[in-house]
Amino acid sequence: MMKQPGPASPAGLSGSKEHKKGEVKTAGGAAAVREQQLDQYFTFRDELKEVEFKRHDMPTPWMNYLSNGTFHTMLSHAGGGVAFYKSPQIWRITRYRFFHLPTDRSGPYIYLQDAGTGRYWCPTYEPAFQKPQEWSSSHGLGYTRFEAQEDEVAAKTVYFVGPYENSLIWNLTLTNNSPAVKVLNVYAYAEFGMMEFMRELQWQCYNKHQVSVQYHPKEALVYKYGVENQPKPEETPLVYMMSDTPLHSYDGDREEFIGSYRSESNPAAIEQGGCTGSTLLGGDPCGALQVQVTLQPGETRTVNFFLGTAMNEAEVEQAIEHSREADFVARSYAALKENWDSYLGAWNCELPDADAQRMLNIWNPYQAQRNFLFSRNISFYATGTFRGVGFRDTAQDILAVAPFDPEAAKEKVRLLLGQQYQDGHVNHYFFPNEGWDPVTSIHSDDHLWTALAVWDILAETGDAGFLQESLPFYDGGEGTLYEHLKRAIDFTASRLGPNGFPLMLRSDWNDQLFRVCRQGKGESIWTAMQLGTVLLRMKDLAAASGHPEHAAGYEAMYEKQKDLVNTLGWDGQWFRRAVMDDGRFLGTDEHDEAKIWLNAQTWATLSGMAEPDKAVQAMDSVRDILDTELGIKKLHPSITTFPDPADPLTNYNKGTGENGAVFCHANTWAIIAECMLGRGDQAYKYYRQLIPNVAMEQAGIWRYKAEPYVYASNLFGPESDKFGLANVSWLTGTAAWMYIAATQYIMGIKPVLEGLSIDPCIPSEWEGFTVNRRFRGCLYEISVTNSSHSCKGVKEIRVDGQRLEGNVVPAYPEKARVKVEVIL
Ligand code: GLC
């Protein structure tokens, strides 16, 4: 590891190990040599906002999410995936076999069969045994495209969900590149599951007789899930599968299409030259459609398939007719593109670092939007069975959507605050689509996060009226939005522990801390810092909502907690993390394990609570003890026996997940803290080392494994056996906070209540950068010049040539664009 100069590590704290790139240990310890060149696997096509894949056998399925906000499909680069309507918990349409081999099955597959020879292959590469001679796939924003050629037939398939119907559109373009006429059997296949995935696992043998697939006279298959005691039967849609090309045959019974002891690799029906015409009144359902296409030499033809939902027979019929309109697919695709162009039009930057620029202009806001939509529900790693909407997770996700779509951000705040009780606490997870009871465990942090989101929305919009909206409480009654936020503070203020810090309650942001507070006495020093961060915002919100008289109370609370943090909370070289039930501190040099925790160091600065020398010392300790070449560990040393070998604080293996992994989400706060301390080079080191393709390059693709275009929740740490292995990609708070850290702290362009504050903290070697940012209806064309090669410190700002006092550029509701020149 490249150590920065700094004070020597305390005894026992030299944590990090070197990882040799390209060396992948097998179980027996032998090093397997695999292709390491990333460009052999994928290429970014930034001008198209796409990433292209050159081979199907990536270390894991690399996913994309296709969605119109109601109908969704998670689809891999190799064509595996799962479609669902609103909820993957109760309205999952297709079956995806999580954790099972072969990996990444099933999916919305197309098979192309030469009617003469009977040979068949899939444009998605998988799953047919015969493979295309040429193949690539690409993920774009809301679509995935496969381009393949086999036996002189070229197939381009674009999968996407358009805004006009709730359906996955499979847009297939075939070209005959041979001198002979080609007659092709084209099959579209999707395996339907039971919509309730948990019921399928538990009660399939009975309930399977309550599902049906029927042939619709308009040449479609209609799948009905009508199972006794299912949730919200009246809101459960019918599923249709159809084509815009006349059908040759169909199957609704998976056993008939696939056959016995076969799989998607070799469906019996295809080998017999056509589907069997099966419907299904009980059994294992599927949708399989066959159409036939004759292509003259050089001819190109398009076939579209649709897998969609509609609420009843009449709507199914309408959807079928609508989807067959000549321009339906083209219009749908154009609208999808337009929607993303307009969304991303809120921000565009040019940076000296192409990897960062790509993340900030394309993939990071895209990932953050998907988190906002799906919370932590369903991914290659999360089975979509129970997590609904997590209060704390979604509250944080709002931060990175507010700059693009403040109205959607407001709507999400309203949804969250409907989960708040009159006493100020909130439900931990809830299920707006499923109608299930929420998970009601009370955590010390959950209810506090919303104030950050609301402050950001106010800063983005300038609309203080939002605070006056009247919103219901979960347990009855209502109050203004500001009142909700105030009650969250009151809840924490009335639950302080013996030392005066907030009680941990069930846990705080670090989920595994529930074991230090089982007797209800544990206190969270980190929550004191989170509270402090929120109190600073609450002073503003009190004033904005016409309650300036509350500010003094917030201030007093802040000062009290600040004092505790700097006294009892200080361990000598870093801040302590918590007080355990038995009154001992967690996160102190006195113990052998879990001596230092990342969050307590970063939030001491984020909250403005740390005394200046302590803030610097704490972040130096992060750099010296927790940082590695692949990101910052969550804690060190990892826990194996602490505090009691019979009952350690966590069951996570050392170096994994919640225990000493590089927890990317928590790394984002180190970037912010370093920026707040003015240390732009260190902040940028922390930022850049976690850019997914940069981390992959560093770790080696076969170690890192997850997607190179979206953040993962965590990487195995140096104390594990697989340092650098990325986990739980896509759905993670890393996305929102990386975006905030980079745009608002490194690039320093941060909406505040008075306008757009500009205070970059960049690497000293940068000459400058430019950003176009939409803010309150006006486009700010910002150019930052750093010829002095400093990290931080704005010398001058000119707006349309006029010198500005201070560094907050006001809102210009009457202007379409302004030019902002910034000199560091
Ligand atoms: C996961 C959870 C999040 C929690 C974090 C740390 O990311 O989704 O709620 O804060 O782990 O424990």
Automatic annotation (TrEMBL):
Residues 53-324 form the Glycosyl hydrolase 94 supersandwich domain. Residues 340-748 form the Glycosyl hydrolase 94 catalytic domain. Residues 755-789 form the Glycoside hydrolase family 65 C-terminal domain. GO terms for biological process: carbohydrate metabolic process. One of its GO terms (molecular function) is carbohydrate binding. Keywords: Glycosyltransferase, Transferase. SUPFAM superfamilies: Galactose mutarotase-like (SSF74650), Six-hairpin glycosidases (SSF48208). Residues 1-30 are annotated as: Disordered. It comes from the Bacteria. PANTHER family: CELLOBIONIC ACID PHOSPHORYLASE, CELLOBIONIC ACID PHOSPHORYLASE-RELATED. This is Carbohydrate binding domain-containing protein. It comes from Paenibacillus sonchi.
